[in-house]
């Protein structure tokens, strides 16, 4: 009970502050280790969270488990098909794949002119002409891939598909190269291969989509098929799986079924090309979570080392204060009171260093967030550390400080008054 009262005794804290003020250099050196540990933890964990939040924002509104497939050429003769022959996608393949793989949420077949298929068509607006890639897509294409529109526009819809409307969604690069600076393209017409298309939307270009450019033009799939007489054939497909599906597994299953459907050898690795946005996103999430775990390990290890350092310096301080402690024991201070004072000084320094580390680390994250806010294509936002995790690290730090504080405290208690006076 007396020891507990000692914690709230003003004289105890006056003695602690006096000891700290007399040895300011030692105090600063003592607290650096703990400060650095909690600072590293806050900075690393917050940065990892900012990265994860940034990619969540970049992929917001679209499937995070998407991938693309296209036909190339066979590298192995199989079932009467020669090496070098090219599989051809048909609309019926979409239903086949959807029925055989229940893990698929969306499939969007597509056409293209330019890009990976021949030269880009000439597009005309008034006296301006240029070449742009033309894509024919389904409405769900914008859900699977990263396609965000400027205000005032829209994407392809079901009515466009049913009525085979001649409407177009142009890229911001197309807008800049075909229209005047102060001109609103929405509702205006462009001419693609001498056919007029009404502009109904302007898409933003994002490098995180991994596909396309800022000058691509999108028209309804059915309109493309009619204008360019492609029939039931198409060039590529985008697929997205449900969130619970492993993207690498889904990619493998789709390729296996495409090979079966198009009479391609199971060992042929060249007949179909693919890229997996879902696997990329999953790798990013794993990396950011690994960063959080690494920051936790490094932070706790550094905090532990810092607390050990405080304990060592406190042992030195106790040695230096042998005479003082001996006199206090001689005039009536109990072992419990001496022990409490040493432990309190140890814990106080630990808490002080930890709080400064948390504050400085949070300020650094705040400055980083401000510095990256204007970088539109930089996936980093709101770099924070959950309060529960901060509280856990802070509690661990205090617990370690208290436990290790018993070492110099017991050393102080073991000093006999007569020995201390004799040493003086």
- Structural class comes to alpha+beta
What is the overall pLDDT average?
Answer: 81
Question: What is the overall shape?
Answer: elongated
Tell me roughly what share of residues is in helical segments.
40-55%
Order of helices and strands: HHHEEHEEEEHEHEHEEEHEEHEHHHHH
Proportion of strand residues: 15-25%
Describe this structure in words.
There is one protein chain. The chain contains 14 helices and 14 strands. By secondary structure, it is of the alpha+beta class. It folds into 3 domains: 2-59 and 283-423, no CATH class; 73-103 and 242-270; 109-239, no CATH class. The strands form 2 sheets. Strands 1, 3, 4, 5, 6, 7, 8, 9, 10, 11, 13 and 14 form a 12-stranded mixed β-sheet that branches. Strands 2-12 form a two-stranded antiparallel ribbon. A hairpin with a 2-residue loop joins strand 4 and strand 5. Helix 4 (91-100) packs across helix 9 and helix 12 (335-373) packs antiparallel against helix 13 (387-413).
Task: Using brief descriptors, characterize the structure shown.
424 residues, 12-stranded mixed β-sheet, two-stranded antiparallel sheet
């Amino acid at each position: 009970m007396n020891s507990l009262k000692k914690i709230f005794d003003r004289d105890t804290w006056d003695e602690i502050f006096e000891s700290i003020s007399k040895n300011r250099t030692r105090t600063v050196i003592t607290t650096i280790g703990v400060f650095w540990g909690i600072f590293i933890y806050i900075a690393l964990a917050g940065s990892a969270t900012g990265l994860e939040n940034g990619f969540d924002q970049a992929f917001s509104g679209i499937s995070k488990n998407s991938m693309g497939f296209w036909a190339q050429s066979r590298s192995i003769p199989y079932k009467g098909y020669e090496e070098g022959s090219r599989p051809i996608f048909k609309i019926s393949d979409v239903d086949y794949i959807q029925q055989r793989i229940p893990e698929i949420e969306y499939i969007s077949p597509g056409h293209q002119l330019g890009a990976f298929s021949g030269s880009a068509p000439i597009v005309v607006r008034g006296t301006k002409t240029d070449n742009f890639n033309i894509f024919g897509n389904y409405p769900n294409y914008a859900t699977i891939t990263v396609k965000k529109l400027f205000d005032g526009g829209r994407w392809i819809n079901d009515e466009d598909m049913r009525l085979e409307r001649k409407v177009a969604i142009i890229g911001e690069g197309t807008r800049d190269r075909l229209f005047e600076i102060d001109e609103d393209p929405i509702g205006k017409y462009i001419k693609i291969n001498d056919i007029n298309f009404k502009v109904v939307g302007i898409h933003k270009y994002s490098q995180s989509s991994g596909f396309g450019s800022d000058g691509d033009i999108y028209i309804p799939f059915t309109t493309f098929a009619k204008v360019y007489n492609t029939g039931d054939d198409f060039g590529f497909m985008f697929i997205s799986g449900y969130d619970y599906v492993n993207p690498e597994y889904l990619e493998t299953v789709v390729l296996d079924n495409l090979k079966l459907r198009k009479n391609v050898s199971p060992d042929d690795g060249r007949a179909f090309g693919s890229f997996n946005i879902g696997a990329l996103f999953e790798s990013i999430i794993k990396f950011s979570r690994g960063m959080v775990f690494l920051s936790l390990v490094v932070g706790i290890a550094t905090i532990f080392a810092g607390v050990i350092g405080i304990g060592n310096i406190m042992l030195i301080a106790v040695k230096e204060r042998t005479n003082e402690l001996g006199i206090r024991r001689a005039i009536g201070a109990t072992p419990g009171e001496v022990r409490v004072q040493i432990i309190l000084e140890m814990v106080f320094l630990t808490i002080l260093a930890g709080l400064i580390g948390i504050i400085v680390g949070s300020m650094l994250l705040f400055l980083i967030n401000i510095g990256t806010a204007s970088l539109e294509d930089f996936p980093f936002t709101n770099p924070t550390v959950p309060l529960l995790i901060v509280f856990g690290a802070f509690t661990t730090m205090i617990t370690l400080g208290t436990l290790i504080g018993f070492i110099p405290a017991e050393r102080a208690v073991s000093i006999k008054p007569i020995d201390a006076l004799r040493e003086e």
